[in-house]
Amino acid sequence: MSFLQEAPQLSHPLHADRLLQHLLAHGLPAARRKAVTPDLEALADYAHMAWRRRMHKPAEVPVHTPWDAWGRRVDRIHPTTAWCEGAAITARHGLVATGHDGTIGPTGRLEQFIRVYLYHVASEFYTCPLAMTDGAATAIKASGNRALMERALPHFLSRDADTLWLSGQWMTETIGGSDVGHTETRARQDGTGQWRLYGRKWFTSAIVGEAAMALARPEGVDDNLALFYVETKDAEGRWNGVTIDRIKDKLGTRELPTAEIHLDGVPAWPLGELAHGVRQVAPMLNVTRTWNAVCAVASMSRCLALAGDYARRRRVFGKMLIEQPLHARTLADMQAEFAGAFALTFCIADLLGRVESRQVADHEPALLRLLTPLTKLWTGKLATRIASETLECFGGNGYIEDTGLPQLLRDAQVYSIWEGTTNVLSLDSLRVLGKSGLDPLRKGIDGWLKDVPADSPVVHAIGHALEVVQQRLTAATSDADKLEAQARGVALTLARAGAAALLTRNAAREPDDMRARATLAIFLDHGLLRLPAEDDIDAVRALCQP
Ligand code: MFK
242-247 and 259-270 as β-strands: parallel, antiparallel, unpaired? Predict the structure, then answer.
């Protein structure tokens, strides 16, 4: 028998995750840590089991059955095994409910997103409808619509699988993915005054929910766009004015039944005024973008866990891979970037909880508003880079389907696309900077660096990055095109500056931890500035000519 390579093994997702252990130790008060630990243990055990199960059985995809044997339109979706378990796991661990549980206090969101981080990869993107359900609950609360709060929130926030409802997010149409302001779906009142929706939605990320939030144009109300709450099924559980045209054939997230649908009279209730739909949807977007970032770092964590384990099992050129300096450097480069992304992501999770429970300093709501798109866009891009490098760490085997590795790369590609592409979020960051400038971020960073000597090189590097961004913002105030062309560089630089400050704080908290110091050193070595050297918009345009 020729040589057989041992496959990589996944270590325990809670016990072996040093960054998560650091977060639990420093992010939660001791009493909360003690309260949540058994639940986190159980969820991590599930994730561990799901990985082993996945390695021993072929991948599944959901199946759409449009018609029954007798010719009735049924549009049944047969989900994968992990999806069949989703409602029970969600209810048991309060994956949505925890974030809205007023009895927990300001750490509720952090506790929720730690669970999401543990569950995400095992869930096979069941986290997508959970994100949208959380977003829907947040938007309904923000609307102050009491009837909808009483009707939908007990289901969205249920800790009982039998009463739990999921919500979809029906925004994207053929005319607009990013530019949802051009939505064509119409809302019309029937003879009883009930609003009903008519139109076509081109991406409904998970067509499984009992409810959905949909943008539509109310007829007879000038040229306005409004946000509606929709119930998708009738009392007998049949689709109510919804036809599933097909499940999308996607590059990744294949377990997730993303569908194209037609709406033909589905009942709907406006959240608030019959106008400013995009403004009403915004609270939802900021929550789902936080989910996106948490899920992106969860995917990175899985990549690094497998690549690191394999490097300790694989011997080449007479040494273990981990002992090969260049391979070790490659893993360390990935680990340092991941640690920065992890720190920034859980910083916004924590901030979200404190902003929602109004336990924040004055600058922190504006800080959260800026950091949310920055974190989403940076983690979205980084997830693909880390997944791609991970596959390379396995050589040819990383390219082979039944190792489970290619799926990591295919799935990672989604994070930079949905919930707003990198460029859309870069422009959103400019919108925020235009309103509140860099001051909230400066104050946030000052707070994270308060125990670090002001003359240390890292404080200087972060200060320099902010200064360069400020100069670019000031220089381009009279030239909107020039500023827009640099928006991605501005956003990435600010995200990296924030992450560097958090890594510095983390290293200062544990002065004997050599890993924390090494993480910071390597992250800084990758540089903070990501601004383009060339900000001449004419040159940019010239290069884009055929
Ligand atoms: C596993 C992880 C799970 C993740 C969830 C997975 C689900 C994925 C499903 C999807 O991908 S659904 C599709 C997601 N689509 C988007 O995210 C849309 C992307 N496009 C944008 O975000 C655009 O920037 C936007 C549609 C918001 C721009 O629209 P407009 O029509 O140009 O609106 P405008 O004038 O920029 O903004 C309207 C108002 O909203 C303004 O306020 P005012 O009316 O008071 O001036 C904005 O300030 C406000 N606004 C916009 N974005 C905001 C916001 N306010 C707060 N936060 C924001 N993010």
Answer: antiparallel
Q: What are the tens digits of pLDDT across the range 310-322?
A: 999 999 999 999 9
Alpha carbon of 253 to those of 117, 159, 416: distances in Å?
Answer: 17, 26, 13
DSSP result, 110-148: HHHHHHHHHHHHHHTTTHHHHHHHHHHHHHHHHHT-HHH
Residue 490 is encoded by which pair of tokens?
A: 């501005």
Q: What is the DSSP string of 303-362?
A: HHHHHHHHHTT-EETTEEGGGSHHHHHHHHHHHHHHHHHHHHHHHHHHHHHHHHTT-S-T
The proportion of the chain whose per-residue pLDDT surpasses 70, expressed as a percent, equals 99
**Distance from the CA of 166 to the center of ligand 1, in angstroms?**
21
Residue 545 has pLDDT above 90, yes or no: no
Is the confidence at residue 417, as pLDDT, over 90? Answer: yes
Backbone φ, ψ for residue 230 (5° rounding): -125, 140
| Residue to substitute in 124, 279, 287, 300 for testing ligand 1 pocket (most ligand atoms within 8 angstroms of CB) | 279
The first and second tokens of residue 527, run together, are 């540089």
pLDDT digits (tens, 9 = 90+) for 15-32: 999 999 999 999 999 999
**Euclidean distance between CA atoms 187 and 265, whole angstroms:** 9
Q: φ, ψ for residue 534 (rounded to 5)?
A: -95, 110
Structure confidence at residue 177 (pLDDT): 79
C-alpha of 49 from chain center: 23
What totals of helices (H) and strands (E) does the chain contain, helices first? 17, 11
Tokens representing residue 58 in the block: 């072929």
SS3 22: helix
Question: Judging by beta carbons within 10 Å of its beta carbon (0-12, 13-18, 19+), is residue 191 exposed, middle or buried?
Answer: exposed
- Give me the mean pLDDT over the 175-186 stretch: 86
CB 516 within 8 A of CB 482: no
Would the pLDDT of 544 be above 90?
A: no
Give 366-407 as a DSSP string.
HHHHHHHHHHHHHHHHHHHHHHHHHHHHTGGGGG-GGGTHHH
Ligand 1, from 169, 175, 180: best to mutate by most atoms within 8 Å of Cβ? 180
Residue 459, pLDDT > 70, answer yes
pLDDT (0 to 100) of residue 534: 60
CA dihedral 138→144→145→147, nearest 10 degrees, is 90
Asked if pLDDT for residue 87 goes beyond 80, the answer is yes
Q: Closest Cα to atom 49, ligand 1: which residue? A: 279
Q: What is the mean predicted confidence (pLDDT) over 433-460? A: 96
**Which of the four pLDDT bands, split at 50, 70 and 90, describes residue 477?**
confident
Please report, as a single letter, which amino acid is at residue 222: D
φ and ψ at 305, to 5 degrees? -60, -45
Q: Could you tell me if the CB of 292 is within 6 A of ligand 1? A: yes
Supply the pLDDT for residue 422. 98
535 pLDDT band (50/70/90 cuts)? low
